[in-house]
Amino acid sequence: MMSSSNVMIDAGKKSSSQRTRLHKDMFIFPCRLRLILRIFVIIQIAFAIMCLYKTTTFSFYENDKSIINTSGHNEKVRNVRQFTPTGIGTTGTPLPLDRTTGTPLPLCPEVPPGLIGKVKIDFANYEMVQVEKTYPSLQNGGRYKPTKCTSRHRVAIIIPYRNRKGHLIQLMNNLHKILQRQQLDYGIYVVEVAALSEFNRALSLNIGFTEASREYDYQCFIFHDVDLIPENDQNMYSCPKGPRHMSVAVDKLKYKLPYSTIFGGVVAMTKEDFQNVNGFSNKFFGWGGEDDDMFKRLNNTHLNITRYKSKIARYRMLSHKKDSSVNNERFYLLRHTNDTWRTDGLNSLTYRHFKTERHRLFTYILADIDPSHPAYYTDRLKIVQESLQKMREDFNKTRAMESKGDNSTRLNSTSSEHLTKDKKHNKKQRI
Ligand code: BGN
User: Fold this and answer.
1) Which residue, of 102, 138, 276, 406, is most buried by count of CB atoms within 10 Å of its CB?
2) Which protein residues touch ligand 1 with a CB less than 6 Å away?
3) Does 46 score more than 80 pLDDT?
4) Residues 405-428 pLDDT 10s
5) Does 200 map to a domain?
6) Which atom of ligand 1 is nearest to the CA of 327?
7) Which domain holds residue 423?
8) pTM recorded for the entire structure
9) Phi/psi at 301 (5° precision)
10) Same structural domain for residues 385 and 274?
11) Can you give 79-118 as a three-state secondary structure string?
12) CATH no. for residue 178?
């Protein structure tokens, strides 16, 4: 047995080999320590960068509820606080005054206190005057702002319209209630383009944007189909930080998103974003494609769309007969969006403004497309030329095959008419 004093003496008297090992260990240890420290610092820097990125890029989502990104997978519910756009109170804009006391009205709460969530839609068929009577708080032209506080959002709702009075009344009857509970400073604009041509939804929206912007300093715009009624008042018609697709779940589409890049029905955009993408295209006459064109514009300007979760962004679609024919040119137009969006849109918008009528429930704008719109005719000409060229090529191909005596094309055809024609032709040749 070694006594403790011996051990101490032994430790003090180390052999030379022991000493070098100890020296090495001492050398290695600080190295490891340094490495660990470095890793630690790197992790900290990475974490700091992530935090910074999160606050600069996603701060809106932190304040907003249940936003889903373009992929549509993030179903996480966040709180209902709203993003406050610039230009309200904070940036030197004077707050409106209380009419009775003359004191400035405070900003409305971030979470509107009167929201109820799922709403009961009233589908009854009323006359316009009946609905008008239920909204005494509206200013003429479908304008409203809260009286007890300063709204955080100045929003214009633009509805493209043609021949759907029943739908318009139903939408007005249900939508105003929701917008008022959301404490918005808003105006509703119904835009009709009285042209002989097919309905042009996108062009009507561009006109609505231009006319509404002339009237008031709206910060953002909701482009709204007349046949979609919101089912939940937490689906905020407020200013979005980035473009927001609002009609995520529609009953007629089994409450499912038909495809991830869809940006039609009801969408919200800030004035700045809308101007940056040059608005909608003016060239989509008839049904379909103009919303996909807008999605391409957003992509070109690196704007990601957001969505509320489908439990909130729900709509009922009012039934109707299909009244505009499908736009067969939409594929051609969509193929060329990336080349044309800079010159086709707000900066090429020409229209004749016929009248603006202030109704109790909305402002009605009647306009007409300018028949001398050069892009409209040039594109039609291009489309006709393209299809003529294709027909010519097909025709030449068939002629070439026939002259080679190649029957395969004829045999491929299953039509009995074709076969009988061929038989007759062969008979004639034999004679
Ligand atoms: C899509 C239409 C959209 C429409 C949705 C509605 C086109 C372009 C085809 C390339 N897009 O098919 O405009 O909003 O259906 O579900 O037709």
Assistant:
1) 138
2) 258, 264, 288-289, 291-292, 330-331, 334
3) no
4) 755 444 343 334 443 444 454 444
5) yes
6) 17
7) 379-431
8) 0.70
9) -105, 15
10) no
11) CCCCCCCCCCCCCCCCCCECCCCCCECCECCCCCCCCCCE
12) 3.90.550.10
